[in-house]
């Protein structure tokens, strides 16, 4: 009887073994079929060994990144940002929509960014993929610490695009002046006007900053003939920020103010 029992149940074991192997193999395939090999090398992001996008890096220990299509259209700027309270993160800005989101700074950030560009399918048919942009914003929509929760309306992606046009350009280049015009990458990106007011006997410089097509985007107030804190009011988001100005010379002050506005995509 024991032998007969063995002959009855043993075939089930032989049948189950290949079935279990098949299920295991199927699950393994299912979990890897969508995974892509992403490599970032020599300013190019590769997906499965095929060039997918350009990603240029600038700066030192905490570099900034610029993501471009293969034919050179800049779609995303990611800049290192030291938040309030000493927290450190990156601020990602889409050049077309002006949408922004913070990204957590971590070891190997450049490789992480390259992977997110591919996994969110940020580029499609040689252009920015709107659905990929949404996925990218949502995947990074997480505040990192108390200081970020106090950093404006950062609980969700922020659109600070103003009424004026943002000119596509290399924002890593220095801003310089021609009279009242603000230039970057050999193009006029805005203008400014200066006035002087007296408050309790102290003189202050008031700078009004405009886009290239004349839309006022900000007002800055600095104490005349003094470096130090500058009160910057941005119109579109009704936000007041204190930034540090390290010069008491007019053209240096407005350059630093305009650089802040450009870096944070107001200008």
List the helices and strands and how they pair.
Layout: H1 2-32, E1 38-41, E2 44-47, E3 50-58, E4 64-68, E5 74-82, E6 88-94, E7 99-104, H2 109-119, E8 123-124, E9 127-128, H3 130-139, H4 146-149, E10 158-159, E11 175-178, E12 181-184, E13 187-199, E14 202-211, E15 216-223, E16 228-234, E17 239-245, H5 250-263
Antiparallel strand pairs: 1-2, 2-3, 3-4, 4-5, 5-6, 6-7, 7-10, 8-9, 11-12, 12-13, 13-14, 14-15, 15-16, 16-17
Features:
267 residues; 2 domains; disordered N terminus; 5 helices; seven-stranded antiparallel β-sheet; eight-stranded antiparallel β-sheet; alpha+beta; 39% strand
Provide an overview of this structure:
With 267 residues, the protein is α+β, with helices and mostly antiparallel strands. The chain has two domains: 38-159, no CATH class; 175-263. It has helices spanning 2-32, 109-119, 130-139, 146-149, 250-263; strands spanning 38-41, 44-47, 50-58, 64-68, 74-82, 88-94, 99-104, 123-124, 127-128, 158-159, 175-178, 181-184, 187-199, 202-211, 216-223, 228-234, 239-245. An eight-stranded antiparallel β-sheet has the order 1-2-3-4-5-6-7-10. Strand 13 (187-199) and strand 14 (202-211) form a beta hairpin. The longest helix is centred in the first third of the chain and has 31 residues, at 2-32. It is elongated and about 65 Å long.
**Given the structure, what is the number of helices?**
5
> Residue share in helices?
25-40%
- The ordered H/E elements are HEEEEEEEHEEHHEEEEEEEEH
Most strands sheet? 8 strands, antiparallel
User: What fraction of residues sit in β-strands?
Assistant: 35-45%
Structural class computed from helices and strand pairing: alpha+beta
- The Cα radius of gyration reads 26 Å
- What shape does the CA trace take? elongated
Low-confidence stretches: 1-16, 28-33, 142-165
**Number of β-strand runs:** 17
Number of domains: 2
Report how far apart the termini are: 89 Å
Average pLDDT rating: 78
The largest beta-sheet arranges its strands as 1-2-3-4-5-6-7-10
């Amino acid at each position: 009887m024991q032998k007969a029992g063995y002959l009855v149940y043993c075939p089930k074991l032989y049948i189950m073994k290949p079935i279990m192997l098949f299920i295991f193999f199927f699950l393994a395939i299912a979990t890897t079929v969508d995974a892509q090999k992403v490599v970032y090398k020599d300013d190019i992001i590769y997906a499965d060994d095929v060039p997918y996008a350009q990603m240029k890096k600038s700066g030192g220990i905490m570099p900034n990144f610029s993501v471009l299509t293969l034919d050179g259209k800049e779609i995303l700027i990611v800049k290192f940002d030291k938040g309030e309270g000493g927290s450190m993160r990156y601020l990602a800005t889409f050049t077309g929509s002006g949408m922004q989101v913070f990204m957590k700074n971590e070891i190997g950030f450049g490789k992480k960014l390259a992977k997110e560009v591919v996994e969110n399918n940020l580029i499609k048919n040689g252009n920015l993929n709107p659905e990929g942009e949404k996925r990218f914003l949502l995947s990074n929509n997480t505040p990192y610490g108390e200081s970020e929760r106090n950093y404006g309306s950062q609980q969700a992606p922020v659109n600070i695009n103003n009424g004026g046009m943002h000119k596509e350009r290399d924002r890593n280049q220095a801003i310089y002046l021609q009279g009242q015009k603000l230039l970057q990458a050999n193009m006029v990106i805005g203008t400014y006007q200066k006035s002087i007011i007296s408050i309790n006997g102290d003189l202050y410089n008031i700078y009004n900053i405009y886009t290239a097509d004349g839309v006022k985007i900000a007002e800055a107030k600095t104490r005349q003939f003094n470096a130090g804190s500058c009160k910057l009011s941005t119109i579109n988001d009704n936000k007041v920020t204190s930034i540090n100005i390290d010069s008491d010379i007019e053209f240096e002050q407005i350059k630093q103010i305009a650089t802040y506005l450009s870096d944070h995509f107001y200008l």
